[in-house]
Amino acid sequence: MKSIAIAAALFLGLAGQAVAADIEVANPFMRAAPMTGGTGAAFMTIHNHGAADRLVSAQAEISKSVELHTHVKDGDIYRMRKVEALALPEHGSAELKPGGDHIMFIGLNAPVKEGSTVALTLTFEKAGKVVVQVPVQSPGAMAPGGAMPGGMMQHHGHN
Ligand SMILES: [Cu+2]
Predict the structure, then answer these.
(1) Is residue 149 part of a domain?
(2) Is 154 among the domain residues?
(3) How far is the CA of 140 from the centre of ligand 1 (A)?
(4) What's 101's DSSP letter?
(5) How many domains does the chain have?
(6) 98 near 121, Cβ under 8 Å?
(7) Were both Cys, which of 2, 55, 146, 155 would link to 86 (CB 3.0–4.6 Å)?
(8) What's the domain range around 116?
(9) Which residues surround ligand 1, an ion (CB under 5 A)?
(10) Do 68 and 60 meet the contact criterion of CB atoms below 8 Å apart?
């Protein structure tokens, strides 16, 4: 019984990590977003330990909609663009990071405060749903657990 309890604790208790089938989400973070009705963005590394898969959607309670976004170069400017899916190669990973692919929250129901946690459900074509607890960091955070002084790259800036 003891080992079962420990296994359950490991499965449920690891903050910021979720494993469903072959999917493992590491180092999720989101930037604090001050405006109700505004947008927010979340980032993470998704490891795929199985056959090729695709992240096809994301859901959260915090906003009216959640989209999968990437950045594409348009002349000298990088712009965000909605994508239908993010590819996960066989035994590969997808890195969602500022300036690249990300999860976009549109129409926030309330300000998202630094220090809080957002429950995000990711749906994969093959692996199914994975719930990730995403810690909220400073508005200019560039990496999990760290912040870029001065919020050098704002998500809205598309720079
Ligand atoms: Cu976006």
Answers:
(1) no
(2) no
(3) 14
(4) S
(5) 1
(6) no
(7) 55
(8) 2-144
(9) 69, 80, 104
(10) no
- Which CATH number fits the domain that encloses residue 44? 2.60.40.1890
| Pair of tokens at residue 159 | 């720079």
Is residue 88 situated within a structural domain? yes
3-state class of 6 per DSSP?
helix
- Averaged pLDDT for residues 129-154: 75
What is the whole-number distance in angstroms between the Cα of residue 70 and the centre of ligand 1? 7
Q: Give yes or no for a contact between 136 and 31, defined as CB atoms under 8 angstroms apart.
A: yes
Ligand 1 centre to CA of 106 (Å) is: 9
pLDDT at 5 over 80: no
Question: What are 78-103's pLDDT values in tens digits?
Answer: 899 999 999 999 999 999 999 999 99
pLDDT of residue 141: 87
Tell how far the Cα of 48 is from the centroid of ligand 1, in angstroms: 23
Cα-to-centroid distance, 111 and ligand 1 (Å): 17
What letter represents residue 51's amino acid? A
Pick the closest to residue 152 from 115, 98, 71 (CA basis).
Answer: 98
